Amino acid sequence: MDVVELSRLQFGLTAMYHFLFVPLTLGLSVLLAIMESIYVTTGRAIWRDMVRFWGTLFGINFAMGVATGITMEFEFGTNWAYYAHYVGDIFGAPLAIEGLMAFFLEATFVGLFFFGWHRLSRVQHLIVTGLMALGTNLSALWILIANGWMQYPVGARFNIATMRMEVTDFFAVVFNPVAQAKFVHTVSAGYVTGSMFVLSISAFYLLRGRYRGLAIRSITVAASFGLASALSVVVLGDESGYLAGENQKMKVAAIEAMWQTESAPAPFTVIGIPDIQTHTTAYAVRIPWMLGLIATRSIDQPVEGIENLVDEARQGIKSGMIAYGAMATLRAHPDDAAARTQFQANADNLGYALLLKRYTPNVADATEQQIDAAAQDTIPPVLPLFFSFRIMVGLGFYFIALFGTMFVLASRRMVERYRWLLHVCLWSLPLPWVAAELGWVVAEVGRQPWTIDGVLPTFLSVSSVPASNVWISLAAFVLFYSVLAVVELFLMVRAIHHGPDTPDRQGGAMIAAAAQ
């Protein structure tokens, strides 16, 4: 494995490991705010006990999320130095704002949440909990603004004098429609994760006959909030699909394993087995019109296939070669008006010319064979995208069904009658994380071969370091994160088995009588 593949593997592993903690932090923070609002409104102590108990689990998860997230920002400098140089003017701003506005806000109110119970009034502590939840969501917002710009780079231009991308419209970066859609979709997935966590642990308590009052109330909150969140994930996922159909057509075609452009409106393949060699999908089950409606929101616009998009990439590469040659001329002769006109006319495709760097240092003089090879590189891995997307979507509809069923049972106070369903809830605990990780795979693998879509290829983004250095740091991260995983599981399991510090109010009198 070369430096590029090793750097991708390292960042992918650290990102996916970090993302184990992010969704639960997002979900639990809002659930805590909901539970504490009920406590402040009703004054019933059991709701305070619920906030403290689930808050303890939130705190363990939050600490692990911080520990694993910091290393990722350092990796931009250690493993992706040219990327940091090339787009640091745009990418660095949201990360800096995330640290100054969101992270410090979040960390401050996390501290007040845990140490303010006996120093703040009920309303004041509720405000702290609400601001803590706001901080977690703001942190996700700025991270996803940065990531959304990588998916759909707007508000920036290439500066020949500095040979870097620079901001031209910061508000366009902030209000990037792809970033906004990714934000609401991702936080909704986090809310589903938090809800499933509370639902599963509460089901565990009911199956063991422990903390019945806390468990039933927690299930009621988790089922209602989880159902709303799961429905939001599907609706907002549709919006993300439409934006991808507009701005990342190759990603959509690869997800669908659609090699040829089909007549509008295109069908959606529910399941099948793509054959990369023959460009077909065996045993395909398709829903007519569905892909066309999702990707174009019309019945007369086609969804382009992979082969057509490769042809478009080939034309983009040729246009980029003109821009690259004009750029070289302008570097030597800044006042050359003809070269400047050529560059401005083809500047949007400069990134496509950089794909040729894999095959030749003389980009402007690339052969047709090299151009064809570079155009083929624009196809992302089809099989991982095809199956990851379908498993993710299938789990999304499963969550709707499970939360909907539990919501109906909780509203009728019939949760305890169906022990088999409580077992289903318990064993469903890891599924939101599976869906979230697969969503990350779809978003990031689907962008390949680009670090910045259409602007900077991944293979050009890495640092100039020996592969052995990356191997050493990768091994160190695997070892360190494995230790953290053991610590996280140990602390979580111990806190869950211990339960809330104050006994369930419903069984409290019996326990006190037995003690006497």
Low-confidence stretches: 504-516
Task: Give the helix tally.
Answer: 19
**Count of strand segments:** 6
Order of helices and strands: HHHHHEEHHHHEEHHHHHHHHEEHH
What structural category arises from helix and sheet content?
A: mainly alpha
Share in β-strands: 5-15%
Computed over alpha carbons, the radius of gyration is: 26 Å
Describe this entry's structure for a reader.
The chain is mainly alpha-helical and 516 residues long. The chain has helices at 3-18, 22-42, 45-78, 81-115, 122-151, 170-174, 177-208, 212-247, 249-256, 290-296, 306-332, 337-346, 350-354, 368-376, 382-411, 419-427, 431-445, 467-498, 505-515, and strands at residues 156-159, 164-167, 268-275, 280-287, 450-452, 456-457. The strands form 3 sheets. A two-stranded antiparallel sheet has the order 1-2. The chain has a two-stranded antiparallel ribbon with strand order 3-4. A two-stranded antiparallel ribbon has the order 5-6. Strand 5 (450-452) and strand 6 (456-457) form a beta hairpin. Helix 2 runs antiparallel to helix 5 (122-151). It starts with a helix and ends with a helix.
